[in-house]
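Hi there. Long-time user, first ticket. I'm pasting a complex I've been working with (about 690 residues overall). I'd like to know whether the download I got is complete or cut off, because the file seemed smaller than I expected. Thanks.
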Amino acid sequence: MVARDRRRVTITDVARHAQVSTTAVSKVVRNAYGVSEAMRVKVQAAIDELGYRPHHAARAMRGRTFTIGVLLPHIRNPFFADILDGLTEEISASGYQAIMVQSGGQDPAAERRAGDALVDRQVDGILWVAPCCAKAQLEQLARDTPTVVLGRHDRSAVYDCVLDDDEVGAELVVEHLIALGHRRIGHITQKDDLPGRAAALLQTIRARTYERVMTEHGLAAHIAVAATSYSEEGGYEGARQLLARDPRPTAIFAGADGAAFGALAAVHEAGLTVPGDVSVAGYDNARMSGLAHIALTSVDQDGAVMGKTAGRLLLERIDGRTSAVRFSVTPTLVTRRSTAPPSRS
Amino acid sequence: MVARDRRRVTITDVARHAQVSTTAVSKVVRNAYGVSEAMRVKVQAAIDELGYRPHHAARAMRGRTFTIGVLLPHIRNPFFADILDGLTEEISASGYQAIMVQSGGQDPAAERRAGDALVDRQVDGILWVAPCCAKAQLEQLARDTPTVVLGRHDRSAVYDCVLDDDEVGAELVVEHLIALGHRRIGHITQKDDLPGRAAALLQTIRARTYERVMTEHGLAAHIAVAATSYSEEGGYEGARQLLARDPRPTAIFAGADGAAFGALAAVHEAGLTVPGDVSVAGYDNARMSGLAHIALTSVDQDGAVMGKTAGRLLLERIDGRTSAVRFSVTPTLVTRRSTAPPSRS
DNA sequence: GACGGTATGGGCAACGTTATTCATCTCATC
DNA sequence: GATGAGATGAATAACGTTGCCCATACCGTC
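Hi, the file is complete. Here it is re-exported in full:
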């Protein structure tokens, strides 16, 4: 329609075209107070005719960017996809756009750079998934930018928390294995070199709960933890460590599905069968886990609900709420063929 | 250190502190021409002391944002993680930051919104992974913003292309299955409702190549294509359709690993075994495919190299290159236990 | 010592938007 | 008809940065 000249259409063009002031156009665009219906219609027509879109950077210099920043350790973890779907669903109606940045997992320096990148881009709010930095850093961020932290157990007065009850989840798995008759149950956890903040990390909760439940059942002597990482490689390596013990465990509880997949590979490679020789259970109930060929017993936490909630909390905070909210989902156990009673060996 | 007052540190603060002009500071920050070593040191000291970080939005209003936008259909596909890793590695040294936006797969309207979101945020370049929109739309975008398209086979004079040679890849799979002795080989593809642009889509190339190779081997009568989607659900449904045929195929070539996983589940559910009753092969060689429990024969395309190359091409384009480049990786076949000669039934 | 070239630093005007302040107009009330 | 309140629209001044242009300092050469 319009002659597509090189220069972009600005609010001034719209104002001139509609024969009103730029202020009036701005008000219409922002749905601000003090515009008559006639004005609104006239301006809107000019906007449509010229194909005007507000200049994002110019807006950012004055205030809102209508952008939510999402900080993910990495996008390989399929559980994050659920979270993002939930978030997107919640915020899209309100005109916000989510942008993602990878923080790179366990390197605090890289994580900080990624966080700064979002702050620099003046996002209106940040959803920080499974941060590994110190709580103080989170709080400093949260003082300037509305923040929701997903998957950590610290309590804060300045940011909101969304998490699953990892204590319940881990307990479900260990109780399930014990009920099946297992006594030598190993655990694969993620080891972070982050002095002082371990207690808040979900991997710590899962590992401690494993130890607690084992102890409560008089199985303290059988506690065996391989501290590697919540990845396929970590699970593979962890399982090898556990299987090398004598006597070897009859069940392995991996703290995450990815690690469980690696454990499955290690068990298989050792010439053992699942669940005949070794039962394996995971955590997160990734879609892959449900596949017939894997059939991994796992803990389901509703990622979509967590993402949706995180989005809602962020919008509320952007809207002015200052009190802190803590939202916890209760996980459930999904039993599949990878766990069974131990053989009588 | 510095009194952390509410206002952010601006270039003016730095200039005042170093007792130079804002212009000088700007030049130092940008590594621009015309700064003496002494000036550089003095200004840098002031920058460090005050903890100055350039205001992104203000920069954006003048020009560069040092941001690369990445448009992904969705982050669930693990292959995209490889691409992103490669991209990040390439661009991080040059001070660029990648931000990701989900385009939402097969909905052109959502995809357009996602693209606009990046354009609005004035990214310096866009890596568009597997777009489903019309070529004209890509070209219009590319005329304003340096663009690299990954995973489509159109040729364009205004954007660069990074792709794997899907014809070679698909041929490898089908030839492999035929060499094993299979004749009734089914294919699962993705059906898009995008009139006129199908020929450029990778799923079309893979499907057409399947048909071509089958025909070349005199197996045209055994061609059987299930047009669902490149997802787990799609693979499951597609495999069910194929297995319902009489006689049923002895091998299934799924156009993507995700679909292959779904196919494995469907085969299993039908009471059949892999590869005893049905061989299954995929495409992408996702990490999961290598797991001992899955052991899926698949086509490996080096995602990290593709991402790295895309990053390099983008930087070159941002730097002023206007000629179009086309980079194609040659895929290889990784054979695993999911494919074997057909039984004599 | 006058001159020209080069290297370096500074002043200023945008970029497009919006919050604030101000001017006008309408209408009801006394 | 004077007054005041409320509604509406416009003018203006930032926000922080950088591109352009000019001023100055320094150097070597004739």
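A couple of notes from our side: Residues 8, 10-12, 22-23, 26-27, 29-30, 32, 54-55, 57-63 of chain B lie near DNA strand D (CB under 10 Å from a C1'). Chain B touches chain A at residues 53-58, 60-61, 65, 67, 74-76, 78, 80-81, 84, 88, 97-102, 116-117, 120-122, 232, 261-262, 264-265, 268-269, 274, 287-288, 291-294 (CB under 8 Å).
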